[in-house]
Design goal:
single chain; mainly alpha; two-stranded antiparallel sheet; 2 helices
Length: 85
């Protein structure tokens, strides 16, 4: 952290950003984004076939997944120490 309170990313020898993250947070973000693609497809499929229950369940699960991803990103940003992911 710099003197004016800003957070600067550390870089490795190759210039890649090293941010503090746990493997658990990374997997929540990656798996969640993968799941969102399928939930979007199920939502569209449910709307096109007028299967409103299927579309509703997919939307609810998508909201839960977005909340989970958001929490994982917040945990990752609030961590100022730990393993570099």
């Amino acid at each position: 952290m710099s003197d004016n309170g800003e957070w600067h990313e550390e870089r490795d020898r190759k210039g890649h950003a090293m941010v503090p993250a746990t493997p658990r947070d990374v997997m929540h973000i990656r798996a969640g984004s993968f799941i969102l693609v399928f939930l979007f497809a199920f939502t569209v499929l449910g709307i096109l076939t007028r299967a409103w229950v299927l579309a509703g369940i997919a939307v609810v699960l998508a909201v839960v997944t977005v909340v989970d991803i958001t929490l994982a990103v917040r945990r990752q940003k609030s961590r100022h120490h730990g393993e570099a992911g």
